[in-house]
Amino acid sequence: MILAASTETAAATEAALSIGPVYWAWFIGAVLIFLALDLGVFHRKPHAVGFGEALMWTSIWFSMSMAFAFWIAPAMVGEQWTGDHTKLFITGYVVELSLSMDNVFVIALIFSFFRVPAEFQHRVLFWGILGALIMRAAMILLGASLIHQFHWILYLFGAFLLITGIKMLFAGDEEVEPEKNFAIRLARKFYPVSTQFDGQKFFTELDGRRALTPLALCLIMVETTDLIFAVDSIPAIFGITTEAFIVFTSNVFAILGLRSLYFVLVGLLRHFCYLKYGLALVLVFIGFKMLIVLWEGRPGWLNFSENHDMVLIIVGAILGLSIVASLLASKKEPEETGTNADGQ
What is the per-residue pLDDT across 31-62, written as a single tens digit (0 to 9) for each? Predict the structure, then answer.
C-alpha cells in the first residue's frame, strides 16, 4: 500500500515527458558533432591546456547547459517542458557535476602516477569521457527501465546512497593502484606494454608486436574509475528525477564540462579539502530524500517530491558551505607553514 501510494505521488508530482526517438537522435547527434569539432578542430594539435583556455571552455559548456534548460529543451519538447522540468534538470546537473569533481581528484592522481605529459592529457580525457557517455547512457536506460517496472528499486538506490555517503565521510584518501585494476590486468594478458610514450598514440610497436603505451593504460584506468563513480552518481540523479531524458541530458552536459573543469581545478585541488565531505553529505541527503517517501506521516516540508526548489537549495547550500570552509582552511595553511619554516 505504501509503495503504491508513493508511486502515485511521484507520478502526480512529476509530469512525464513524451520524448520521441527523433529528439533523442537530435541531441546525441549534436553532442557527437561538438565532440568531433573539439578533437578535430580546437584540439587537433596536442598542447597543454592552460587555466585561461580551460576556464573559457568551462564557461561555454555551462552556458550551453543553461541554454538547453531554459531555451532549447522547451523549444524542442514544447509545452510538456515546464518550469519544474527546468528545475529538475538544473538540480541533476549540479549534482552530477559536483560528484564529477571527486572524479577530478582521482584523474589527477592517475595522470601523476603514469607521468602523462600535460600536452597529452586532453586526449586521454576526450576518449575517456566519450567512453563514459556510452557507459552512462547504457546504465541510465537500464535504470529507467527497471524503475518503470519495479518502482521499489528506488528505495534500494536510496539505501545504497545513504550507506555510500556515510562511508565516504570516514574514508581515507584515494589511492591509485593499477596492479589491482582488473581491466588493466586483462589488457596486459592480450598485449605487451611499452614503458615509453609514443607521442599521443595508444598503441606502438614493441619487438615487432603491437603493444600498449602507458597512455593506453592511463585511459583504461580513467574509464574504469568513471564506471565506479557512475555507480554512485546514476542512482543519485534518479533520486532527483526518474525522467530518462532529463537524467541523460544533465549527465551528458556534466560529463562534457568535466574535461575543461579538470584543467581549471587541477592546480587548485589542495584548496578543496572539505569538498569530499560536502559530496558525501549530498549523497546522504539524496538517499534520505528517496527513503522519506515511505513515511506517510512526514511533515509537509519534508515532501521533497513536490518541492524541487528546496532540493536545489539544500544541495547548493551543502556544496557552497564545503567550498567556503575549504577556502577558509586553505588560507590558514600558508601562515602555519610559514611560521614553522621560520622556526617561530
Answer: 888 888 876 676 677 777 777 888 888 899 99
What range does the domain containing 243 cover?
A: 50-297+304-327
Collapsing DSSP to helix, strand or coil, 199 comes out as coil
Neighbours of 253 (CB within 10 A): 23
**Phi-psi category of 181—alpha, beta or left, where left has phi over 0 and alpha has psi -120 to 50?**
beta
- Adjacent-strand bridge partners of 212: 193, 203
Q: Please count the structural domains in the chain.
A: 1
Model confidence at 237, in pLDDT bands (50, 70, 90)?
Answer: confident
Question: Could you give the residue ranges of the DSSP H alpha helices within the chain?
Answer: 2-13, 21-37, 51-67, 73-77, 83-114, 118-149, 153-170, 182-190, 214-238, 244-265, 275-292, 308-341
Q: pLDDT tens-digit profile of 104-153?
A: 778 888 888 888 888 888 888 888 888 888 888 888 888 888 888 887 88
Quick check: is 180 in a domain?
yes
Q: Let me know if residue 92 belongs to a domain.
A: yes
- Neighbouring residues of 313: CB distance < 8 A, sequence distance ≥ 6: none
Contacts of 69 (CB under 8 A, 6+ apart): 86, 89, 90, 93
Per-residue pLDDT, 99:
81
Whether 74 is covered by a domain: the verdict is yes
